[in-house]
Amino acid sequence: MENRTPSGTHITVLREEAVHAVLALDRVATTGQDMPDVLAPRSFVDATFGRGGHSALMLERLSSQDRLCVFDKDPQAIEAARQIPDSRLSIRHEGFAALGELTWHSVDGVLMDLGVSSPQLDQAERGFSFRFDAPLDMRMDTTQGPTVAEWLETATVQHMTEVIREYGEERFAFQIAKAIDARRQSGQPIQRTAELASIVAGAVKTREPGQNPATRTFQAFRIFINAELEELQQALEASLNVLKPRGRLVVISFHSLEDRIVKQFIAKHSREVVDRKALFAKAAGLPLRSIARVKPSQAEVQANPRARSAIMRVAERTEVAV
């Protein structure tokens, strides 16, 4: 995720820490026997290019023989990637669930930086933010799929309630869905972000200090319309297949729904399982080894308040076949 400071500068969250982890520089620094391996050509993936903050640093650290493949659904992100004059870089205009199309055990490290980027949030026409009155879009890939406005034209109250409650963790989900439906019944479909924000504000009776009443609903609709959590699950599973033994998986999440999926995935694939019917049998090996959980430093949060919710989890592929 790219983040914007008040001055308008873009900041990549956990930039140094993520690149250090995905390139396994900690292992190189502490284990001299790994140095010959590093000289061999390696392949890495930035599964969520954004505006290239992590990729730029990775390219600085990679050798001339290494390769970096980047994925992104956003056409503007892809255009930004195409401006990088580096023959080591390959670009795929796809969501990161397409990781599974890469060759089995061909990648030395996968980095996933989840969530919406500041360029997306700060461009009114993208419809991600209630801070601007704009068409209610929210698609990360503007070349395909329905907009939020189009989905709201036909979504049932039950479906809207489920989406708002599950993806926004909003306790007033039913009241918001009913208010949206009442607006539709009046013959006025919701087309703009300001309209949706106003309807939500009227339905939400209380809210945490400093939080806009529409925050959770906008998050829920964005996650739903882009199938973000489903794609994350697919990408995590694909990473097991494409990572080489000792390859790194590094994931930065920005809200509890994402982090819960990442945490549970790593735990599921890194805990040894003992057959209780055969007490003396060796525990079955699993394909991941959990390495670290990292939060931004206090200095980074002070410089970039949007980093405060970030959590980075690091795991390493074992020798066990999937």
What labels would you give this structure?
322 residues, alpha/beta, Rossmann fold, DNA polymerase, domain 1, two-stranded antiparallel ribbon, elongated
Question: Main sheet?
Answer: 7 strands, mixed
Taking pLDDT < 50 over at least 5 consecutive residues as the criterion, the unreliable ranges are: 1-9
The run of helices and strands is EEHHHEHEHEEHHHHHHHEHEHE
What is the 3D shape? Answer: elongated
Cα-atom radius of gyration: 21 Å
Number of contiguous helices: 14
Widest sheet, order of strands: 5-4-3-6-7-9-8
Instruction: Classify the fold: give the CATH topology of the largest domain.
Output: Rossmann fold
Task: Kindly give the count of domains.
Answer: 2
Strands, helices and their partners?
Elements: E1 2-4, E2 10-12, H1 15-22, H2 25-30, H3 35-39, E3 43-46, H4 53-61, E4 67-71, H5 75-82, E5 89-92, E6 107-113, H6 118-122, H7 148-152, H8 157-168, H9 173-185, H10 193-203, H11 215-225, H12 228-242, E7 243-253, H13 256-268, E8 288-294, H14 298-303, E9 311-317
Parallel strand pairs: 3-4, 3-6, 4-5, 6-7
Antiparallel strand pairs: 1-2, 7-9, 8-9
Helix pairs in contact: 1-4, 8-9, 8-11, 9-10, 12-13
